[in-house]
Amino acid sequence: MRTTGRGFSLPSRLLHWAMAVLILAMLCIGVGMVATVSPRYLALLSLHKTIGVAILLLVLVRIINRFIHRPPPLPRSMPRAQHLAAIASHVLLYGLMLAMPLIGWGMLSAGGYPVVLAGAVQLPPILPHHAQLYACLRQAHAVGAYLLLGVVLLHIAAALYHGMIRRDGVLESMTTGTPR
């Protein structure tokens, strides 16, 4: 594991921002899916599934990258409660980034729906067809989406707090890679 006195590594920053865009897109697409009964629903669903698989693959790469390129330490001036909140929120974010695509894939499998990506590429079902399991996973996926939205909003608020109020280099370490 490498750690430097610098901010986040370039691969870490690229993965962070790519996933940020994809996750925000997924949340918006999800809202669009549940808010429409138009023919656009199927197009949104197809896009949602494809981006979900991309997020699943990227989070796995991101986890490996995090072991290779350790994040820089948090500022020593940060209060202990904020330090613990930062750790807890990152664990929750990583957990949700991993769980949400798997719950969605499992939900579709339990509902008997194929997970078709581009063209004829189709993922195998990961759960047996089961209506009650489908309903349970559908509810879990919805609750997880709200939880993910809440944690993302807190993450953005914390980044802005560090960048605009504390000015402690935390935000800059992820935007420009400058030291904390």
Main sheet strand line-up: 1-2
Oligomer: single chain
Query: Main β-sheet: number of strands, strand sense, barrel status?
Result: 2 strands, antiparallel
CATH topology call: Fumarate Reductase Cytochrome B subunit
* Alpha-beta content class: mainly alpha
Structure, described:
This protein has about 180 residues and is an all-alpha fold. The chain has a single domain (about 10-175), classed as Transmembrane di-heme cytochromes, Chain C (Fumarate Reductase Cytochrome B subunit), CATH 1.20.950. The chain is built from 5 helices and 2 strands; from the N terminus they run αααββαα. The chain has helices spanning about 10-35, 40-70, 80-110, 130-165, 170-175; strands at about 115, 120-125. Strands 1-2 form a two-stranded antiparallel sheet. The chain is elongated and about 50 Å long. The mean pLDDT is about 90. Belongs to the cytochrome b561 family. It is found in: Cell membrane. This is Cytochrome b.
